[in-house]
Write a structure and sequence with these properties.
- There is one protein chain.
- The protein is mainly β and 148 residues long.
- It has one domain: Sandwich (Immunoglobulin-like).
- Strands 3-2-5-6 form a four-stranded antiparallel β-sheet, with no helix packed on it. The protein has a three-stranded antiparallel β-sheet with strand order 7-8-9, with helices on one face.
- It is elongated and about 55 Å long.
- It starts with 5 loop residues before the first strand and ends in a 12-residue tail after the last strand.
- The model has no long low-confidence stretch (mean pLDDT 92).
Length: 148
Protein backbone atom coordinates (compact mmCIF):
# COMPACT_ATOMS: atom_id res chain seq x y z
CA UNK A 1 0.00 0.00 0.00
CA UNK A 2 1.31 3.44 -0.92
CA UNK A 3 2.00 5.94 1.85
CA UNK A 4 0.20 9.28 1.49
CA UNK A 5 2.58 12.15 2.32
CA UNK A 6 -0.08 14.83 2.05
CA UNK A 7 -2.01 17.03 -0.35
CA UNK A 8 -0.49 19.52 -2.77
CA UNK A 9 -2.64 22.44 -3.88
CA UNK A 10 -1.65 23.92 -7.22
CA UNK A 11 -3.09 27.27 -8.25
CA UNK A 12 -3.13 27.53 -12.05
CA UNK A 13 -3.11 31.29 -12.56
CA UNK A 14 -2.66 32.15 -16.24
CA UNK A 15 -0.89 31.62 -19.53
CA UNK A 16 1.01 34.34 -21.37
CA UNK A 17 1.50 34.54 -25.15
CA UNK A 18 0.47 30.96 -25.80
CA UNK A 19 0.77 29.60 -29.34
CA UNK A 20 -2.13 30.06 -31.76
CA UNK A 21 -3.41 26.63 -32.73
CA UNK A 22 -6.57 27.77 -34.53
CA UNK A 23 -6.85 30.37 -37.30
CA UNK A 24 -6.86 33.45 -35.06
CA UNK A 25 -6.47 32.19 -31.50
CA UNK A 26 -6.66 29.12 -29.26
CA UNK A 27 -9.06 27.62 -26.71
CA UNK A 28 -6.54 26.56 -24.04
CA UNK A 29 -6.88 24.37 -20.98
CA UNK A 30 -4.32 22.83 -18.62
CA UNK A 31 -3.85 19.24 -17.50
CA UNK A 32 -1.79 18.65 -14.33
CA UNK A 33 -0.39 15.15 -13.80
CA UNK A 34 1.52 13.53 -10.98
CA UNK A 35 2.00 9.79 -11.24
CA UNK A 36 -1.39 8.29 -12.14
CA UNK A 37 -3.35 11.39 -11.11
CA UNK A 38 -4.71 13.74 -13.76
CA UNK A 39 -6.60 17.00 -13.16
CA UNK A 40 -7.90 19.54 -15.69
CA UNK A 41 -8.81 23.23 -15.72
CA UNK A 42 -11.73 24.67 -17.64
CA UNK A 43 -11.30 25.78 -21.26
CA UNK A 44 -10.80 29.52 -21.88
CA UNK A 45 -12.23 30.24 -25.32
CA UNK A 46 -10.43 32.28 -27.99
CA UNK A 47 -7.56 33.53 -25.83
CA UNK A 48 -3.77 33.18 -26.04
CA UNK A 49 -3.42 34.96 -22.66
CA UNK A 50 -5.93 32.94 -20.61
CA UNK A 51 -6.64 33.41 -16.91
CA UNK A 52 -7.83 30.26 -15.16
CA UNK A 53 -7.38 31.15 -11.47
CA UNK A 54 -8.21 27.56 -10.49
CA UNK A 55 -6.98 25.46 -7.59
CA UNK A 56 -6.24 21.79 -8.29
CA UNK A 57 -5.33 19.40 -5.46
CA UNK A 58 -3.11 16.34 -5.86
CA UNK A 59 -2.46 13.66 -3.26
CA UNK A 60 1.28 13.12 -2.87
CA UNK A 61 2.31 9.46 -2.60
CA UNK A 62 5.88 9.84 -3.87
CA UNK A 63 7.76 13.11 -3.36
CA UNK A 64 10.26 12.12 -6.07
CA UNK A 65 7.65 12.22 -8.85
CA UNK A 66 7.57 15.41 -10.90
CA UNK A 67 4.42 17.44 -11.42
CA UNK A 68 3.79 17.63 -15.16
CA UNK A 69 1.84 20.42 -16.83
CA UNK A 70 0.33 20.07 -20.31
CA UNK A 71 -1.43 22.88 -22.16
CA UNK A 72 -3.87 21.95 -24.93
CA UNK A 73 -6.07 23.78 -27.41
CA UNK A 74 -9.58 22.34 -27.43
CA UNK A 75 -10.88 21.46 -30.88
CA UNK A 76 -14.48 20.57 -31.61
CA UNK A 77 -14.11 18.32 -34.65
CA UNK A 78 -10.60 16.90 -34.22
CA UNK A 79 -8.19 15.83 -31.50
CA UNK A 80 -7.09 18.62 -29.18
CA UNK A 81 -3.77 20.24 -30.15
CA UNK A 82 -0.86 20.16 -27.70
CA UNK A 83 0.40 23.70 -27.06
CA UNK A 84 3.34 22.84 -24.80
CA UNK A 85 4.35 21.20 -21.56
CA UNK A 86 6.47 21.79 -18.47
CA UNK A 87 7.35 19.97 -15.29
CA UNK A 88 8.73 20.71 -11.86
CA UNK A 89 10.02 18.80 -8.85
CA UNK A 90 8.42 19.25 -5.43
CA UNK A 91 11.56 18.18 -3.52
CA UNK A 92 12.66 21.68 -2.39
CA UNK A 93 9.08 22.47 -1.34
CA UNK A 94 8.80 19.24 0.68
CA UNK A 95 12.17 19.96 2.36
CA UNK A 96 10.85 23.38 3.43
CA UNK A 97 7.69 21.76 4.82
CA UNK A 98 9.81 19.48 7.03
CA UNK A 99 11.59 22.42 8.70
CA UNK A 100 10.44 23.81 12.05
CA UNK A 101 9.16 27.15 10.81
CA UNK A 102 6.64 28.21 13.46
CA UNK A 103 7.41 31.66 14.78
CA UNK A 104 8.90 32.99 11.56
CA UNK A 105 7.45 36.29 10.37
CA UNK A 106 5.06 36.04 7.44
CA UNK A 107 6.85 36.72 4.16
CA UNK A 108 10.13 35.06 5.19
CA UNK A 109 11.96 33.50 2.23
CA UNK A 110 12.97 29.96 3.19
CA UNK A 111 14.89 29.08 0.03
CA UNK A 112 15.21 29.99 -3.63
CA UNK A 113 15.12 27.69 -6.65
CA UNK A 114 17.04 28.93 -9.68
CA UNK A 115 16.12 28.22 -13.30
CA UNK A 116 18.47 25.77 -14.99
CA UNK A 117 18.57 23.21 -17.80
CA UNK A 118 16.95 20.53 -15.63
CA UNK A 119 13.80 22.51 -14.75
CA UNK A 120 11.23 24.55 -16.66
CA UNK A 121 11.44 27.66 -14.48
CA UNK A 122 11.30 30.93 -16.39
CA UNK A 123 12.62 32.85 -13.37
CA UNK A 124 13.79 32.35 -9.80
CA UNK A 125 11.17 30.70 -7.58
CA UNK A 126 11.05 31.57 -3.87
CA UNK A 127 9.66 29.22 -1.23
CA UNK A 128 8.08 31.49 1.38
CA UNK A 129 6.59 31.14 4.86
CA UNK A 130 3.37 33.13 4.73
CA UNK A 131 0.47 33.19 7.19
CA UNK A 132 1.47 29.87 8.75
CA UNK A 133 1.93 28.06 5.43
CA UNK A 134 4.75 27.19 3.06
CA UNK A 135 4.06 28.66 -0.40
CA UNK A 136 6.01 28.48 -3.65
CA UNK A 137 5.19 30.56 -6.71
CA UNK A 138 6.43 29.17 -10.03
CA UNK A 139 6.58 30.80 -13.44
CA UNK A 140 7.11 27.97 -15.91
CA UNK A 141 8.33 28.10 -19.50
CA UNK A 142 6.51 25.69 -21.78
CA UNK A 143 8.56 23.33 -23.91
CA UNK A 144 7.62 22.07 -27.39
CA UNK A 145 5.33 25.00 -28.13
CA UNK A 146 6.03 26.08 -31.71
CA UNK A 147 3.47 28.02 -33.77
CA UNK A 148 1.85 26.04 -36.58
Amino acid sequence: MEHLHGLLRIHVHRGVNLAKRDVLSSDPYVIVRMGKQKLKTRVVNKNVNPEWNEDLTLSVDDTNLPVKIFVYDRDTFSLDDKMGDAEFQIGPFVEALRMELNGLPSGTIITRVQPNRENCLAEESCIIWTEGKVVQNLVLRLQKCREW
